[in-house]
Structures are given as C-alpha cells and as structure tokens.
Amino acid sequence: MKSTIKMLGIAFAASTALATATAAEAQREGYGSTAPQQTPRGEQQQKQEKAPKGSATVTIGNQKIKISAAFAKAYQELVTAVDGNDVANIPAKVAAANAAAQTKEERYLASQAQLKAAVATKNDAQIGTALESLIASGMLDQAQQANAWLNLGKTRYNQKQFPAAIAAFEQVQKLEPGNTEIIPLLAQARSVGGNPNEAVATIRQAIAQQSANGGKAPEDMYKRAISLAYKNKLAVTPELSRQWAVAYPTPANWSDAIRIYRNLSNTDEAATLDLYRLTRAAKAMKDDGDYDRYAYLALSKGYPGEAKLVLEEGVAAGVVDVSKTPFKEEMAQAKAKSAGEAATLDAAATRGLSAPTAKAAVTNGDLLYGYGQFAKAADLYRAALKKPGADAGLINLHLGMALARAGDKAGATAALSAVTGPRAEIAKYWLAFLQSQA
Questions:
Q1: Chain region(s) in the chain for CATH 1.25.40.10
Q2: Of 374, 423, 433, 361, which Cα lies nearest the Cα of 396?
Q3: pLDDT tens, position by position, 365-381
Q4: Confidence check: pLDDT of 23 > 50
Q5: CA dihedral sign of residues 366, 372, 373, 377
Q6: pTM of the entire predicted model
Q7: CA-to-CA dists, residue 30 to 25, 66, 203, 264, 437, angstroms
C-alpha cells in the first residue's frame, strides 16, 4: 500500500518560511546564521513580527504564532539539517526541537520538519511518528486531521502494523463518513490483519449505504468484497455474488456469479444441471466448457433433446465444434436418443397430469422444460405438488424456473420463495435473476 502524504505541500512551505522568520529573530538574539534571507513565497506566507526579547512571532496565513527563542534556535538547527540532508544529525536535532517545544504551535512546527526529513529518507517509522505528532499537536483542522490519519494508516500498513493501520483508517471514517477512498484500505487492512469477516462487512456496509435511496455502489466495491469472501471461503460469498449480478447484470457477471457458487458448493448433478439452466436463461454460457458440461449433464439425467438444443446453440454462437471431441460424441448421442421425442411431448404432458406419483409428473415436466415448453411444464409441476411422494423443495424450484422462463415473474417469485432445504440457495439465484430483469 503506497503512502502518499498529500498535506506535505502545505506543511513544507510552512516549515521553510518559518525557518526564514525564526532565523531572522534568532539573529537579533545573537544566535544563528547571519546570511541574507529570502522572502518566502507559497501557499502559507509568514512574516516577521516584533516581539519581546527572548521570543519570536511569525504569521502562518492569518494566524500569528509566538515561539520561544529556545525553540527558535532548536527549530532553525533542525530545518538546516533537514534542508541540508544531514541525515546523521537529524535524529538529534529532532529530539532537541521536540524537547524545546512547549506549546502546541511549537510541537506542530517541529513535527512538520520531522515529517519532511522522514519522507526524504523514506523512513516509514519516522513518517508515522511525525504524523502522530502532527495530529497530537491540535493544530490541524478536520480535513487536515483526516488526511494525516489516512497517511498514518497507509504508513502503518506498510510496516505491517495492521491494528495501528486499522485504528488510523477508522479515525478517517469518523472524521469523513462519506470518504469512499478509505473503504478498500480499511477492508484490506482488516483482511491481512486476520479479520476477513470484518473486512467484508466493511465493504458490505459501504455498499448498503451507497445503494440506499436509489443509489448504486461502484462495481469495484462488489468485486473487492467477493474476492475477499471467496478467498477466505466465507458463507456470505454466494449472497455477494448475487447482489453483484443484480446490480450489474451483464452475461459475464452472471456467468461468474453462478460459477462462484458452483465452485464453493458441493451440488449433485441434478442441482448443477439446474444451475446451468439458469446460466442459459441469463444468456451467460461463457465458453465451450459450459456447453460441454451442460450437454453431459442433460444426457446423463435423461434429457437428450435438451442436450441437442444446447449443443446447437453452442454451434450457432461459434463456441462449439461438433466435429471435435467431446462435442462430436455428445451430439451423436443426443440425436440418437432424442429421435422422435419431440413428437411425443403432448402425450408426455397428458401422462404427467395423470401420473400416480409426483416423481412421474416431475420427470415429464422436466422433459417439456428441456424443449422450451415452459407453461406446460409448469402445469405438471403444479400437479406434482398434490401427488404422493412430492418433494416440495425440488418441485417449487422447477415450477419457479418454468414460470420464470415463461415470463410469469410474479408466479415464479412465489414458487421460488417457497423453496426450502438443500435447493434453497439455487432458488435464491433464480430469484436474483428475476430481480435483475427489467
């Protein structure tokens, strides 16, 4: 995490100009250089003020600051060492200036010079110490405090002092609740500090805040949360992937969201087939591996007509080459096993409605679903719910899938919301898909 000390442009201008003013005062007290001094120019102009013997007064912006002669001498020596890159003597000069500093203004000036020296030597430990001193001086306004805490957090992160980095970033949040830059920094610090759950919770809270009242969190925020959750195998990962796909419903995002769940879960072939059916519905079939796996599962579960249609879609998309393995074998098998099947679909619908068991009704409903006859399939699933041996979770899932493909959003939502048990998570993905549709 690279640290960028944004406030230094102002801080250094103040340090240099104050060095000029205090040097002039020091000359009147009989110490310091007698070389001519340049009139300072910059964001914060300082000028000499007449002051009682034994002290000096300088002006930063509209604020007059009185410093003691003892501090003026120590401070001038520190600034001279810093400007001259006298690395060997800077630590002693810093210590002397800090020892001489008796007021918050003096501590502020000493900290500025210390910070300049630390940045010049790229010493993270000293940068952190100087920033802490600047914050503690009481001279920073709210925006400057937030910036100092931000850079302190980055510095402590670089030192792998993660609790200190987290504490600093949390201070930025308190000072600037709307600061979105701090979210990924705080999350990353919490993650590498051993708290991935808190890291993800940090980003989720920011997503919720930005999504309130019709707003929309940046996509990178979702991706960062998913990356952390997936890497640490957190239970919230599937939910995050769904929220991302709903907020940014591109085919590629849907493909990745579903893959995330497939990779993390231990679904059986039937459940995996239902996930591929969702991938197809979302127009998110990504590569030849998707078509291969879908066709294989459809064939193995006894739906060769569905496998044939999927492979034909892959050919049309320019992804599948049926002259090559494994598609050559899959297409041959699908054609052979589905020959004449389409002509029996009306009979299958009748058989399903009159079947004595729920299983027979569902099997015929799945056959119709595979051929795109979603409304008829839904009729069979409804009938199956009333038959002996009904697996309500499975049947409501397939009913919701069929209604979703048929365009009955309200009916699909009701059916999918009723799914409980091991298929509930798959139902949530279908519900999210419905939510993402205009």
A1: 349-436
A2: 423
A3: 999 999 999 999 999 99
A4: no
A5: positive
A6: 0.77
A7: 9, 18, 59, 76, 81
Contacts of residue 357, Cβ cutoff 8 Å, sequence gap at least 6: 387, 388, 389
Give the span between the Cα atoms of 231 and 191, in whole angstroms. 10
Q: How far, in Å, CA of 291 to CA of 311, rounded?
A: 6
By C-alpha distance, which of 380, 384, 359 is closest to 369?
Answer: 380
CA angle (64 as vertex; 59, 70 as ends), nearest 5:
85
Q: In CATH, what is the architecture of 349-436?
A: Alpha Horseshoe (1.25)
User: Which tokens go with 98?
Assistant: 């800090």
What are the structure tokens assigned to 196, written together? Answer: 């991935």
CB 40 within 8 A of CB 20: yes
Pairing status of strand 63-68 against strand 48-49: unpaired
d(CA 149, CA 24): 34
State the amino acid at position 204 in one-letter form. R
pLDDT interval class at 178 (50, 70, 90): confident
Q: Give the 3-state DSSP-derived string for the chain, with helices as H, strands as E and coil as C.
A: CCCCCCCHHHHHHHHHHHHHHHHHHHHHCCCCCCCCCCCCCCCCCCCEECCCCCEEEEEECCEEEEEEHHHHHHHHHHHHHHHCCCCCCHHHHHHHHHHHCCCHHHHHHHHHHHHHHHHHCCCHHHHHHHHHHHHHHCCCCHHHHHHHHHHHHHHHHHCCCHHHHHHHHHHHHHHCCCCCCHHHHHHHHHHHCCCHHHHHHHHHHHHHHHHHHHCCCCHHHHHHHHHHHHHCCCCCHHHHHHHHHHHCCCHHHHHHHHHHHHHHCCCCHHHHHHHHHHHHHCCCCCCHHHHHHHHHHHHHCCCHHHHHHHHHHHHHCCCCCCCCCCHHHHHHHHHHHHCCCHHHHHHHHHHHHHCCCHHHHHHHHHHHHHCCCHHHHHHHHHHHHCCCCCCHHHHHHHHHHHHHHHCCHHHHHHHHHCCCHHHHHHHHHHHHHHHHCC
pLDDT digits (tens, 9 = 90+) for 282-306: 999 999 999 999 999 999 999 999 9
